[in-house]
Amino acid sequence: MMRFGSSKRNYGNIACIKKRANAGCLEVKIMRYVTSAIIVLLAVVAFSMPANATETETGWALFANAVLIHQTASTAVVGNEASGSADFIVSHANADATGQWLIHLEASTSTSSTDISAVYPEANADAGSALDEHGNGRLQLSELYYAYVLSDQHSISAGLLDVSGFFEQSRIASDETTQFLGASFTGNPTIAFPDYTLGAIYQHGLSSDLVLRAGLASSNGLADNDSRSYAQLFTVTGDDKGVFGILSLSWQAQGWLVRAGSWLSTANYTPFNETEDNLNNYGYYLLTGYKYGRHAVNVRLGYANPKVSLGKAFSSVSYLYQLGRYSVGIGAAQSVVSHQATEPAASNTPHYEAFIRYRLSPAWLATADVQHINNSNFTASATDPARDANLWGLRLTWLYN
Predict the structure, then answer these.
(1) What are residue 367's DSSP bridge partners?
(2) What structural domains and CATH numbers belong to the chain?
(3) Which of 57, 108, 301, 356 has CB 3.0 to 4.6 Å from 286, enough for a Cys bridge?
């Protein structure tokens, strides 16, 4: 999945949230027609643009990618897994520069409960990014929003969007199609980001280096509902749903990037001790990175409410070295289990990854990676040896624009 945005596998913030019943089939058929119409529209736009036209001349910008992934594990509980995904994004800026539309179509292959990405949810941040209620891959409309420029310093983006892409992006550890594959290195799992959801993001440029962002959205996104349907997505009220709010400051200058923020989710969380009900989830996070020449480093820290979040704290460090057509990445992360968790076998989850990427051409990338996960999904390997695994992967990525 290409991020504008982020991977939606928020494995660390496991909490007890009540679900609603599935939506009917009529809505599914309607969305298929709508998605098909959008595909035709985007195809017309793509093929009608002059080959040498620029974004400035036409107002249109097209982006696309596709990735094929093969993974194998050291344990016998799972076999090899092959997965894939594709993204198609089109944006159109107004001629007077007062705003921009963005449409994001996404597709992925199906997943099953015996796949590596299901047994080890940290292993593949790309797998299953567009699934229906039965776990089958599908083509879906992931984002459709309008960014309105109020002034040089102020803008508002509203619609169906990926909240995490506005608040938690790293330069070297956010895109699982071209960078690290493991979920511990593509985002901060302590943050209860909703999947693609209805919301609005306000951005205020305090200076040339400092940006304030505030977001307000539904706590339940497209993949957070049982039916994974648009009808359920647009039903913003209900016992299980609430509001997700987030506030951050971002500073970028002289090779440095720093993002710090806090968030709150009012979804219906049940605490581990079950003596209270309808608790809120909340947390704080920090992302910082430094880039110098061929070297780049990224650090993430996070904390969430230990009464409802199985993963209460998180830390990771990632390093990237680039030389010509080659890129080498190394990362280490640790998710800390809540001290209030009632699962007797719950334990911290260390995660390590290294990858080497080779640019075959401007449009094609080949990547090999190796990962080690201990106590996967907070289940102690001392009681379940399969929770400790080595994983090897190969990726072939195609990029357009």
Answers:
(1) 357, 395
(2) 16-400 (2.40.160.10)
(3) 301
